[in-house]
Design a protein that fits this description.
about 260 residues, Alpha-Beta Plaits, 8 helices, about 70% helix, alpha+beta, Alpha-lytic protease prodomain-like, 4-stranded antiparallel sheet
Length: about 260
Amino acid sequence: MPLFKSTYRIEQMDCPSEEQMIRLKIEPFESVLGLSFDIPQRTVHVIHQGNSEVITQALSDLRLGSSFQSSENVEEYASEEQITQKQILWWVLGINASFFVIEMGFGVLSNSMGLIADSLDMLADTIVYGLSLMAVGTAVTTKKRVAKISGLFQMLLAFIGFSEVVRRFFFSEAMPDFRTMIAVASLAMVANVICLWLIQKARSEEAHMQASSIFTSNDIIVNGGVIVAGLLVYSLDSSWPDLIVGGIVFGFVMQGAMRILKLSK
């Protein structure tokens, strides 16, 4: 579908409060991909798909003295904010994909449910960041749909993880290697702190970016839990702390999924 940039003059747009009113009014339209404001010139540029009639009517309803100025075809649209979002998401996607492989490998070798759980959480995040990349530059409704898919996927992963934890409680497993648990989880925590810092640099209020921030914040807590589990495995000479933390990890995954589903509304 072709893209258009329509320009409107808003006579009563004197400060950011009018800008916010306009955003709240027309950003929810699925056809609207982006907005840019020039308050001193009292103009707003709307990047959209299809005709501009619904946008013109919505602006008129605000009674801010809006008038349609012009409309032109544009080949593609990517604001500075969207370019920044994509760069950040590519970085965090790469970091999470790498640590999924690292933690899963060392989790299997060390027989640590905590590391395996953390690696699956990293896999969930990798898919979330991939979906978020698809959402950059799309309509608000699409961003919320992506957040919803992300939440449902995390919920599925949590159920699978809980099943494995229960299985290990009833069937004896070899003791996990606490040294590997602590070392790998510590590296993963550093990686997640870097990811969270990158995401927060974007300062985006959009649903798909907020979802990414929630996932990464949970991951840092999870990494700390795996480190504590490793210390308890050593001090208690038992595999139970590892299994308990594995269950708690999937509890965080489920909690994150619920928050994302709420956000997607």
